[in-house]
Amino acid sequence: MPTKQKTYSNEFKEEAVKRVMSGIPASQVARELDINVNSLYTWKQRYMKHPEQPFVGSGKLHKENEEKRQLRQRIKELERENEFLKKRVPSSPRT
């Protein structure tokens, strides 16, 4: 029977990370909070990389990643439009 993955609030993750950053060993924090120590290391890494918004989820992206996604999507749209226009415009004879 598959186990259901636990979910933790952003506040919980942030408090756990702050405890580790204050000097408490990650293994101790993980044991006290009954969480996987690897999850704690992952949370810490995300917190260090994006301290203003470390724990995005539910289909949300960090601001710069969202901008990249939108730009890639726009490029694809323009490429499709270009292909369509190439097919619609007859090629002119070269002289």
TrEMBL record:
Gene3D superfamilies: Homeodomain-like. Pfam families: HTH_Tnp_1. Residues 61-88 form a coiled coil. SUPFAM superfamilies: Homeodomain-like. GO terms for molecular function: DNA binding; transposase activity. The keyword ATP-binding does not apply. This is Transposase. It comes from Selenomonas bovis.
